[in-house]
Amino acid sequence: MKKFIIVEICVIIAIAAGFWIGRITSPFNDYAKYYENADKAWSKSQEMNNPPVTYDEPDKSRLRKVRAAYRTVFENYPDSRWADDALYQLALLPRTDEEGFALFRRLIRDYPDSEWADDSMYAIAIATYEIADDLKKTGTLESLTAYYDRALALFNQLIATYPGSVLQEDAQFNAAMCYYGRGDVSIALNQLESLKMELRNSPIIYQILYNIGRINFEQQDYENARVEFKNVVDVGDPKYAPAASFGIAQTYFNEGKIEEAQAKYKEADDKPKEAEAKYKEAEGKYKEAVTNYQKVIDLYPDSQVGQDAHFYIGWAYHMLKDYDEAINRLEAAIESYPDNVITTTAKFYIGQIAEDKKDTDRAIEVYQQFAEDPTHSYDHRLQAQYRIGKIYQENEEMEQAIEAYEKLIADFPEPHQNVAHPSREITENYVQTLKAEHLGE
């Protein structure tokens, strides 16, 4: 009897325990708190991401935890108000571009009315455009139009699907730039000119004007480039005015080079009066360039173009044959901005100016310092050593020329990468011939 009672009690306890365990683990219990749990999961992800991490976060453990927290939200609570937010935030922290694209595409597909849908489409489009630009610069783009076409299709899709988006104007501008990137310059300019009228009261107008000027500049339409650059400078747009002001100076400098080239052509064609007129026009352009480079220096001293203008004004003075001022400007620029990418070129260029000034001692000194500086590229140093020998040879100082050429052969055994470079003619046989002809050896 006792055993029966004990068994009966155990059965009752088991039934009760099963009832309560069932209630605790029931999916209906989870669903009852579905949105509450979603809120908690989202709050936890936000706490973990404060301060915000980036995809290159040095604390990889924290980055993984933040990624996992966002994934928990949209995988476990796809119907909550936070699902698209979490999906978008995770897409901003991808391990690779393709992972990010996949998450953005999922957001667009699963939550087409999300406030992040247009941002997601724009993110894929602009990243694709930037990839195309990078590949174009490095010359590794297999199909010139492939990435630009993909980006263009996405920008156009955004414009059509989300007509009220705050990103619509950016998409319109970038769609035009896709045409330019793939080489359809006339289409790009036509679209930008249309946007110039359509978006004349929008903040993006200065970006449009600057890029119309930039494209015209690259097409050597310097007059129209100046018009657009001046429009940007006149309103003082803080982002584009410095580059536009520098662009104005560049148009004059390039026009000067064109006029000078035409003058030399007229000279060779035995038309001295026409040549003289062209030289005068070139001089006027170079003077305008100097004036406008100085404006850039004065107005935007802390900008990148402000630094660059210090170098370019030296080159403009060189074209005006004001050699001393050119050298002074370049030396000051080199001292002030030793890390500027133009500095190496400027150091070598001072030697060329000294040559034009007929100051061969200074030219040789400059080239010697350049050739002995291991921080410069091999080809540039080789070129400097070659110029030393060439200067001596042109001055008929053959002993020094031979010595310089022997140093060239010894210090630079590998030839210049340019197969047409004259230094490739300086061989052991060439030096032996010079010795035989001029030193009697």
Detailed description of the structure:
Helices cover 76% and strands 0% of the residues. Among the domains are: 36-115; 359-441, Serine Threonine Protein Phosphatase 5, Tetratricopeptide repeat, CATH 1.25.40. The chain has helices spanning 2-25, 27-32, 34-48, 60-76, 83-91, 97-110, 117-138, 146-161, 168-181, 185-198, 205-218, 222-235, 241-268, 272-299, 304-319, 323-336, 343-356, 360-371, 378-394, 398-411, 428-439. The chain contains 21 helices and no strands. The N and C termini lie far apart (132 Å). It is mostly helical.
What descriptive keywords fit this protein?
76% helix; mainly alpha; 21 helices; single chain; Serine Threonine Protein Phosphatase 5, Tetratricopeptide repeat; 441 residues; elongated
Concise structural overview:
The chain is mainly alpha-helical and 441 residues long.
